[in-house]
């Protein structure tokens, strides 16, 4: 009997092309788009750094060395221009965010103690460039000049290139600086793939609200539910019969999205999702997430009066849970208050569970609390929806 | 077969709909349940099919009662609602397989029952088609076929011929007759009086939650026969007044030039005709005897519009 109910639900959803698109195609598209879109922002190392133009009035030794120092600058990419006019045009058209113009006699100017010169190194900015970026470019120019001048101090010494570079780095303070990352392992930030794949998988799993509510409300509106009332079948079977097939659908979604993350995303971004020794925990996490999504959908379907009401309510609820839960905007870029609000969303519990397993490589101790929260949430909502469902079909 | 005794029922926050309703439907009968909208027909069927529970009284189906023997009762009855209560996205066969599988007691004979239902409703050739592509007549037949999957001894049919062409209606009525001949008791509701007259051997007319009349159709139509006499023009006002007084004394009504009433026997009809002759009044038309179901229905439930 239960098998028949499950088979019926699977047949219904398999013939609902809109539901299939929302459940399977939409998350794949989102994963690919968002992995590409966030690739640079979340990688920490930009492959497409902003360009700064460089024009040198004369191709002398100083300018050549300065140019080399500019090329080694971090955070910007230097493009050489043949004339000031070309550099200005590129700046106006937004091809570069700033420019540096080196005058012809700059070597003499830089060595002269006189501060007043008619010719100076000019730094240009795009009109819309924020102050922080302007300061960054100016800092980069000063850094290049500093590196050149420190290099000049050792140019007459009988030193190898490596030794000279070590001394220059020492004077510039590079060898005195050590970088460290502090904080617990839980504060690790995901890269674009680690964020996008689980985020849009969770989002898609919660969209079972559409086929579930459509089926249940159609049963109510067409009188099928009343017919089912006159059949000798327990009401709980009918609701459990809806839960099991959608759990299967969610598991297929998860397998498909993980495969997309592992095999398809690297073809586009060069970086794929990597599983680790704790990945077995993904199964209980996905099951718990699925039960939460289905119970949430059942509650909406049993509360709504019409299909339109259910799909609107379900869609908006999902968007809000996703917006606050770190699905659309990663929580680590949110202010503290928003991060606290994010922790209220079951989508965030699921996402944190994924991060605990895939990113922090934590075991049950780290992912377990999120799984238990999801199970408790789904248990409460399923009982509420069972109560509502019995209310719809009860003998009055 | 079906016995309702002293049934009380009211919907939450509504005045009582049924108070002390009694009804008996004999085994093997084809029972027509009539009433205007809001009369309580659907509620009565919902009570008999176990979807609603009475506040007081007892409903007995074939010797078993709700709620204690509900599952056992539901195994042997079928409710075929007015709505197309199936899944349009599924094929005929998929719908039948799903609903058939909900009857645990028919597990062994499931395939055979599906074939029988398909044959009886003429859907064998359509078994692979999706129900959403069906015409109204085919949908009605599928609705009926689903109701036959447990080989029901008792079938409740709620307006099964609404919105279909005469051919489909004829086919469905013929199928219902065959089911009844095969031994199923059928409770049939419809607003089509001629259908009930053609089909049913027992009827009940209800309104405002009360059963106004019920019993064998022939007896009901014969009982309390109505006399209607249409008179020719009366030019003399005195004679019209005399006629009015005479009719009042005999218990007849006079409305313009039409006399109506329920004479006890044929003698009273003859006496009335003698009175008319004595007043030298001409008769254009006279009807006396058996009711039509429609006339009886309007007489009992009046003609004013319902919500």
TrEMBL record, chain A:
<dbReference type="InterPro" id="IPR013525">
    <property type="entry name" value="ABC2_TM"/>
</dbReference>
<dbReference type="InterPro" id="IPR047817">
    <property type="entry name" value="ABC2_TM_bact-type"/>
</dbReference>
<protein>
    <submittedName>
        <fullName>ABC transporter permease</fullName>
    </submittedName>
</protein>
<feature type="transmembrane region" description="Helical">
    <location>
        <begin position="280"/>
        <end position="301"/>
    </location>
</feature>
<keyword id="KW-1003">Cell membrane</keyword>
<keyword id="KW-0472">Membrane</keyword>
<dbReference type="GO" id="GO:0005886">
    <property type="term" value="C:plasma membrane"/>
</dbReference>
<feature type="transmembrane region" description="Helical">
    <location>
        <begin position="313"/>
        <end position="334"/>
    </location>
</feature>
<feature type="transmembrane region" description="Helical">
    <location>
        <begin position="371"/>
        <end position="389"/>
    </location>
</feature>
<feature type="transmembrane region" description="Helical">
    <location>
        <begin position="237"/>
        <end position="260"/>
    </location>
</feature>
<keyword id="KW-1133">Transmembrane helix</keyword>
<dbReference type="Pfam" id="PF12698">
    <property type="entry name" value="ABC2_membrane_3"/>
</dbReference>
<keyword id="KW-0813">Transport</keyword>
<keyword id="KW-0812">Transmembrane</keyword>
<dbReference type="InterPro" id="IPR051449">
    <property type="entry name" value="ABC-2_transporter_component"/>
</dbReference>
<feature type="domain" description="ABC transmembrane type-2">
    <location>
        <begin position="162"/>
        <end position="392"/>
    </location>
</feature>
<comment type="similarity">
    <text>Belongs to the ABC-2 integral membrane protein family.</text>
</comment>
<dbReference type="GO" id="GO:0140359">
    <property type="term" value="F:ABC-type transporter activity"/>
</dbReference>
<feature type="transmembrane region" description="Helical">
    <location>
        <begin position="20"/>
        <end position="38"/>
    </location>
</feature>
<feature type="transmembrane region" description="Helical">
    <location>
        <begin position="197"/>
        <end position="217"/>
    </location>
</feature>
TrEMBL record, chain B:
<feature type="domain" description="ABC transporter">
    <location>
        <begin position="2"/>
        <end position="233"/>
    </location>
</feature>
<dbReference type="InterPro" id="IPR027417">
    <property type="entry name" value="P-loop_NTPase"/>
</dbReference>
<dbReference type="InterPro" id="IPR003439">
    <property type="entry name" value="ABC_transporter-like_ATP-bd"/>
</dbReference>
<dbReference type="Pfam" id="PF00005">
    <property type="entry name" value="ABC_tran"/>
</dbReference>
<dbReference type="GO" id="GO:0005524">
    <property type="term" value="F:ATP binding"/>
</dbReference>
<keyword id="KW-0067">ATP-binding</keyword>
<keyword id="KW-0547">Nucleotide-binding</keyword>
<dbReference type="InterPro" id="IPR003593">
    <property type="entry name" value="AAA+_ATPase"/>
</dbReference>
<protein>
    <submittedName>
        <fullName>ABC transporter ATP-binding protein</fullName>
    </submittedName>
</protein>
<dbReference type="GO" id="GO:0016887">
    <property type="term" value="F:ATP hydrolysis activity"/>
</dbReference>
